[in-house]
Amino acid sequence: MKRFLLVVLLAGTVLPLAAAGYYDQALSYYKFRNFDKAREALSKEVEVNPSNGMAWYFLGEACKSINDFQAAEDAYRK
Prior knowledge:
The protein is an all-alpha fold and 78 residues long. The longest helix is centred in the N-terminal third of the chain and has 30 residues, at 2-31. Helix 1 (2-31) packs antiparallel against helix 2 (35-48), helix 2 runs antiparallel to helix 3 (53-65) and helix 3 (53-65) runs antiparallel to helix 4. It is flat and about 25 Å long. It contains four helices and no strands. It has helices spanning 2-31, 35-48, 53-65, 69-77.
């Protein structure tokens, strides 16, 4: 029972950190104009945190930068 509680507590701590890591990583990629990698990381971020408006915005910007205008529009509309 103690192991179960420990696993549950750790999962509650690690998952938000992983999500924050996607966003931070994506911004680094974006800053250095690696838009494909930024798009990948931002896609993961919005999957785990769909209410992150800034992630949707930067996903749109990354998609626009690689000429995927439909995906950019979809991201901007979220």
